[in-house]
Write a structure and sequence with these properties.
Blueprint: H1 14-24, E1 29-33, E2 39-43, H2 44-60, E3 68-72, H3 77-88, E4 92-95, H4 102-112, E5 116-119, H5 124-130, E6 139-142, E7 159-160, H6 161-166, E8 182-187, E9 197-201, H7 202-213, E10 225-228, H8 235-238, H9 240-247, E11 250-253, H10 260-270, E12 274-277, H11 279-291, E13 301-304, H12 311-321, E14 324-330, E15 337-340, H13 352-359, E16 364-365, E17 370-374, E18 389-394, E19 411-413, E20 416-428, E21 434-439, E22 444-446, E23 449-451, H14 453-461, E24 466-476, E25 480-489, H15 497-504, E26 516-519, H16 533-539
Parallel strand pairs: 1-11, 3-4, 3-5, 4-8, 5-6, 6-7, 10-11, 10-12, 12-13, 13-14, 25-26
Antiparallel strand pairs: 1-2, 8-9, 14-15, 15-16, 17-18, 18-20, 19-20, 20-21, 22-23, 24-25
Helix pairs in contact: 1-2, 1-3, 1-9, 2-3, 7-9, 10-11
This protein binds adenosine monophosphate (AMP).
Residues 188-189, 235, 305-308, 327-332, 336, 362, 422-424, 436, 439, 528 line the site of adenosine monophosphate.
Length: 548
Amino acid sequence: MALMGQMMTMPLLISSLLKHAARHAGDTEIVSKRVEGDLHRYNWREAELRARKLAQALARLGCGPGDRIATLAWNGYRHLEIYYGVSGSELVCHTINPRLFPEQIAWIANDAQDSALCFDLNFLPLVEKLASAMPSIKHYVLMTGRSHMPAQTSLAGLLCYEDLVEAEDGQYQWPEFDEQTASSICYTSGTTGNPKGAVYSHRSSVLHAMGAALPDALDCSARDVVMPVVPMFHVNAWGLPYSCAIVGCKMVMPGPHMDGKSLYELFEGEGVTFSAGVPTIWLGLLSYVKTNGLKFSSFKRTVIGGSACPPAMMATLIDEYGVDVIHAWGMTEMSPLGTASKLNAAQLKLPKDEQRRLLSKQGRAVYGVDMAVIDDEGQTLPWDGLSAGNLVVRGPWVISQYFGHAESPLITVDGEPGWFPTGDVATIDAYGFMQITDRSKDVIKSGGEWISSIDLENIAMAHPAVFEAAVIACAHPKWDERPLLVVVKKPNAELTREQLLEFFEGRIAKWQIPDDVVFVAELPHTATGKLQKLKLREQFKAHRLAGV
Ligand code: AMP
């Protein structure tokens, strides 16, 4: 008969992260650039006290276990308090992406049946406009102090966040409950059809936060000053608000001020060592730093994910600015972390260019995530770095179903049920490094062969006159589809179609070189800053490739 372990059974609850930070790193700072424009400073101890007061205030409003409390907010200390105060008191924190179309925001709030909405000052006009379309919301809370409350608003009974918190005494004990209880909800971006909700549990969030903090993942420590530039409405800022509490480090939050200048000033002013964001954010920052001849004095490393990090961007950060890049991959359905590109001891002995080639891939699986690439019959493909197939994953922080959808998204792999199909096409090499070749719907299918749009974009991005590049499939009478390269040039740069196409010669097989180049003033991005290829495809639906 099995002998049972004799350890304490303490549920893994999100409140335990904040309690730990307040008790063991209580004096460590949390600095936020407010919507109002000024800097706010306090520490983990004060954050925990205010999160408790918020939990009391929400209970006083009649919110109870399972109620969804939505946010439309930037990265800042009040948003952090809501993360903890809401989840910690058995309510469910639902971060909504304010960059979505207003109709989509209302659709998501209705699908989740949110009962309250907390929002930043600059979203007041948006919320006033949407309120009548969100009937489940009983309480609107403006995340500001009394002096910034509007004199007039169409929102009946609009509440002031600071008034709510200040009215409580903080005499509140974080409750203990089942660790499988829902802690938060994030909706997928819904590029095909309506968005779908991923419901995280306390257990999955805590395990993810521990896994993500490890040295071979995001590598957070008490010695860091961490600035998540990735918004708290983009898969919980990749779990950093939780991982930072575990390690008890200083946090810096940029609020809505994410232009190159504001970010640079915050990096330098607060001594940020570590950051995280999608490639488009770094494009803006690097261009500001380069134009002004600046260097970073404390910034040591950054996580780049959400879209493929172009190797040219990685080279600029590492070689010109001494900032290490951790290329990471994940998705909303995975809390989000799946892989990170960190070299092991043996790989550190490889020649430098081989190391860089590995680092530019999306990386090795983080403990807690298993992965495989499969063919269309559900059979696994070899880990040879060449066989591209559908990427599937499983693990304790991967969803088993979508909110409100009874049918399971999971599939069987090699006869084993329970794998989540990511919709990404990837290879895995003998070192276990995974590389995304494409989103399955972005792959260019030319004469039965696949061309990776990411490979072509990476080459274009390495051209010194290119600011941003996207490759999409364009209809072709003979080959079905051929690649079309759409490019934004750097300001004042001279570049012709022919020069750019010539740049591809010798960098990729001849038949994969794009058939055409179009120069545009800007590229469309999704609400999370990714290239919006669906929109680009629509925009260039009628494009006739040269010579066709
Ligand atoms: P989301 O759930 O909106 O964060 O989108 C997840 C999707 O973003 C993934 O399925 C990938 O297609 C893409 N993605 C995330 N990280 C990367 C990366 N490092 N490289 C390439 N694609 C990525």
